[in-house]
Amino acid sequence: MKYVRFEAKSGIKYGVLDGKNIRIIEGSIFSSEYSITDKKIALDEAKLLAPCEPGQVICVGLNYKDHADEVGFTLPEKPLIFLKSSKSLNHPDGMIKYPSETNQIEFEGELAVVIKKEAKNISAADAYDYILGYTCANDITARDIQRSESQWMRSKSYDTFMPLGPCISTDIDPNSVRIRSYLNGEKKQDSSTAMFIHNVPTIVEFVSRVITLCPGDVILTGSPQGTSPMQVGDRIKIEIEGIGELSNLVVADEK
Ligand code: MG
Description:
Distance between the termini: 40 Å
CATH class of the largest domain: Alpha Beta
Number of strands: 20
Structural class: mainly beta
Helix content: 10-25%
Bound molecules: magnesium ion
Largest sheet: 12 strands, mixed
Radius of gyration: 17 Å
């Protein structure tokens, strides 16, 4: 199943992808009661939105063996987690605004875990019971700011710095899917979540010991090797097997 959130003439709704159509859902996919109706809208008539509105965005740093090898770091024994502002949320095909305070913004293609129900102190063995599905994320980072500060929040949290989507896919093995990023059509990242240092259940267990996870929260699982700078006018596409493509254009911040 692939859930989407979209804007149509009738307002913002959830739906399920069905070929070139969306079957409209009544209610929220994060409540226990919702129904998939027989009403349909053509996919090209709907404006897709980020598939959820997370209250919290938890990110994992340095979680791919190939990226750790690339930068020469030793593999972390436990997940390194940090917060990214939920207000950095951006939509499929939304514009990424290049802030004036930085001279180096970079993409980071990542698998995002979408939480289904409240989770606290859960074990890795039970983690999948608390996961609705998975989507593509771009953990955009002002690399020059990140390098100049010991805290990463500012460099990761500018408005528009977290494109998310296009759908929440429920039927993939999150620890074994191919993940690729293309900058203006040129392949820049090509890896597999099989290269995770810490897999999805381990991460959910670790995070839930610290934070009460809530429906719609997302966990970004880290980026493989190949992150690189973007310029105004560039188009960045993140593609994950079994989910789809997340494509966004970089524009100048006109303030
Ligand atoms: Mg990242």
